[in-house]
Fold this protein.
Amino acid sequence: MLQHCCQLLEDRQLKIAFIESASSGYLTSQFSIHKNSGADILLGGLVSYDPSIKVSILNIDPKLIETYTAESPQVTEQMCRLGQTLFQQADLIVSCTGLLKSGGSETTEKPVGTFFICISYQERIYHYHYFLSGHSEQKLKTLTQKVSDALVALLTTTQTSLS
């Protein structure tokens, strides 16, 4: 599905950028290695793994992180919105937070394996929430698949509705 997603982005001449936390640049790297992605679709990415980067580089209000945690839908949405200012040429911004492994803001309601994704496209932000199991590398592979699936669905749905 990743290859299909990259081809779809290329065919539509769309540019994508990533603002990542839990995935630590994995999504950006996976989108860069397919076909001509680096040159044709991928603008780049920012890894904001530590909350201090979210605050100092992305300008996320520290009170938002304090209130909801760095791994939350609210912070993920704000990362996506602020990513639009960093990557102004991007047609799509994908932001990701979550709990790849123990040590974050895990709770019984938000266990390790919880991921939040936001995709900005055509002046709208789409929200996704996943629970992924397996070891860290398996979670990242599954996350990449889920993001690719979401992008393909979004691009084909919006294309159909625009026709």
